Amino acid sequence: MSKIIKEFYTFDDVLLRPQRSGVFSRKDVSTSAQLSKHINLHIPLLSANMDSVTESRMARFMAEAGGIGIIHRFLPIEKQVEEVRKVKRAENVVIEDPYTISESASVEEAQKFMKEHLISGLPVLNMNQKVVGIITRRDILFTENLNKKVSEVMTKKVITGGPKTSFSDAKKILFSYRIEKLPLVDSKLRLKGLITLKDILKQAHGSAVSKDKRGRFLVGAAVGVKEDTLERARALLDAGADILVLDIAHGHNERALNTIKLLKQKLPGMEIIGGNVATAKGVIDLIKSGADAVKVGIGPGAACTTRIVTGVGVPQLSAIFETAEIARKYKIPIIADGGIRNSGDLSKALAAGGYTAMIGGLLAGTDEAPGEYILEDGASYKLYRGMASREASEDKLRIDGNPPIGGDGPYRAAEGKSGKVYYRGKAGNVVGELIAGLRSSMSYLGAKNLKDFQKNAEFVRISPAGLKESHPHDMKST
Ligand code: XMP
Hints:
- By secondary structure, the chain is α/β, with parallel strands linked by helices.
- It contains 18 helices and 21 strands.
- It has an 8-stranded parallel beta barrel, surrounded by 7 helices.
- The longest helix has 18 residues, at about 425-445.
- Xanthosine-5'-monophosphate (XMP) binds near residues 276, 340 and 359.
């Protein structure tokens, strides 16, 4: 028999009660957050795996801001892989393909090359492509005869590291030998990369950036539940993706559970975010299948029509409460996905139990999101579309031949909308405002970190009059 269970709430139904606070400066609070079993972020934000939100440019921005971007999967495998690679190549502490010079080149050639490429030193290779030395500007500075060969002036005793030398080991080696460049070589002395002191120092200043062990930006990528999933997942991980997101509207579905089990079994060590669900049972089944984090949200998103088309969904705040309570017992973090329109919503989502939050519509209007600018009646917009919209589904069909969601008969049950959102300038504006609002909220609750924020949070239920009072009123904006 069907039954009505209880009342469920969402962001506008509640407010956070202020608490006694010892936090004086909003800068005193830490926004560091757990994304999954093994990955932490500096800010609790993910950009959504949607084709109008996250490709490499947005993912690079998100990592730089301390969060993470998830590259969408509405691309052929090789294109999605290339987007991951672009993120991994950017701001790299390990230069994967460094410039080199031959030992038989002249000092003059080396000098010209360094000037042209604005670099201060070059690994020197012999005929067999083995590293035999290193030449720096300093070596050249004291060479009067520029016709001399590089082999005559280079430093022959080169300190090197193995191909997989970590960022912190490289730092130790550079500091202890007081050198500026560390070539990474394999057992046959073939060059596999280069780490420079300059990049390490730059890294140290940007300590709130999301980086992997090798100093590269963190990035995630989405996979579906279709036939190519394993191949796609493998290719994304080979390209350096740090975490995968299982992208399926109903994550509490046998296919989703089996896909997670399969990926976990075939790709050991990989981190995967399961979802989307909105119930405790959904969380338990995803965790038992191997999910390292669970994404929560059925229908709250700005471009979602799932609740209207199917009548199915759970108001987002209650969905977060219910799922977070159970996930906490398994020590698995929840990602609040969808429906966040401002920093107040973000604060409520995290206070209710979300460890991090995924953002779509708010970021779609920024420069870093893919897509054209639309100018209409003097206002600027960018395209934003639900990934289950008819338009996105038709594009997907063109890309990989998979029929759109809801079958391929004449009546397709699209569960998303395609439209436009206001242009918002740089993504830094959006993320900056979200995090500033969150910090402020934490200080109202006397919380110096997100764990205490959840602990101290007390929600009050408000009436429609309370909501009206919350918004600016009785004045005209200028
Ligand atoms: P916001 O509110 O940030 O939400 O724009 C982003 C989230 O919306 C979800 N999403 C969809 N949900 N139909 C849906 O019901 C869709 O077509 C659709 N596309 C995206 C997704 O979880 C995303 O992160």
